[in-house]
Design a protein that fits this description.
single chain, 302 residues, seven-stranded mixed beta sheet, 12 helices, 37% helix
């Protein structure tokens, strides 16, 4: 809609509106990679309280963090819309400030969302920033600490495996965050959001099926996935795009200390990546029974 509005302004030659904004856009283009531009007013909108209470969304801390350091939170799973990540780390109605005093969280999303005129301003106002290497490095390099980069590591590809009752993570090929952590000496913290995959039902799309083949190709071309999902309606529970009212419990695990190495080798990256996957698996195993996952269910890392 924001792109369409901008195009219409140009077509009808409302130059006094689009020329000042496009000029602003030119000079402001890199702001999403430099911490963004958040608005306390928008982050405090009452709608976010209703958003949190609808499911409801809960944030659980397992260990205190030192506010004199910066951290990278690896958020899992992506689900269809990463509802828990947004509710806990972007709005001012979660328990984040009480559980992690002295910290500011930055939720990283695909850079392409900041290519949309006008819409980008809203994205930044709610605390979202780009997930580019430059953006993450900017956040975790803050002197004196107190910053948390929240990255939904599975990304768009993982959303295609977001089916109720399944815990499939796309993580084995995601190592960029590990390299950034080593370069800056930033501790890694695994985060698992129980209930994330229960909010929607997705059309069956096993690997090798024609639906999955098309989805994978579109994801490679566009950078984001197109899962075919449904849930409930506004006034009925049979069919619609409203998510189901399923509780989300986002559990923040133990930090993994990281020694700074300005030029890490492939072996060092691989070693830390393996440690991260092991800690993530432990976090899942320790808490799955509390949040409705059968004991026989295991975490699948792809």
């Amino acid at each position: 809609m924001s792109i369409a509005i901008t195009v219409m302004l140009i077509i009808h030659n409302y130059w006094f509106l689009y020329i000042p904004y496009l000029t602003w856009l030119y000079f402001d283009w890199h702001t999403p990679e430099q911490g963004g531009r958040r608005s306390s007013w928008i982050k405090n909108w009452t709608i976010w309280k209703h958003y949190k209470d609808y499911f409801p969304i809960h944030l659980i801390k397992t260990q205190d963090l030192d506010p004199s350091h910066n951290y990278i939170f690896g958020f899992h799973p992506h689900g269809i819309l990463a509802v828990g990540a947004f509710g806990n780390f972007s709005t001012n109605y979660s328990d984040f400030k009480e559980l992690f005093p002295g910290f500011t969280s930055y939720l990283h999303v695909l850079p392409l969302w900041f290519w949309c005129p006008v819409f980008r301003e809203y994205m930044m106002s709610i605390g979202l920033v780009s997930v580019s290497k430059k953006s993450v490095s900017y956040v975790v390099s803050k002197e004196g600490g107190g910053n948390i980069s929240v990255i939904v590591l599975g990304g768009a590809k993982e959303s295609l495996d977001a089916h109720p009752g399944k815990s499939i993570l796309f993580i084995r090929q995601r190592k960029g965050f590990v390299k950034i952590a080593l370069t800056h000496g930033t501790s890694l913290v695994p985060v698992f959001s129980f209930g994330e995959n229960e909010l929607f039902k997705q059309v069956d799309n096993p690997e090798g099926s024609w639906i999955r083949t098309v989805q994978d190709k579109l994801q490679k071309i566009m950078g984001f996935a197109l899962p075919l999902f449904h849930a409930r309606g506004v006034f009925q529970y049979n069919f619609g795009l409203m998510p189901y009212r399923k509780a989300i419990h986002t559990v923040v695990g133990r930090p993994i200390p990281v020694r700074q190495i300005l030029h890490p080798t492939e072996e060092q990256i691989e070693e830390l990546h393996q440690t991260y996957m092991e800690e993530l698996t432990k976090l899942f195993e320790e808490h799955k029974g509390k949040y409705g996952i059968p004991e026989h269910e295991t975490l699948v890392l792809k």
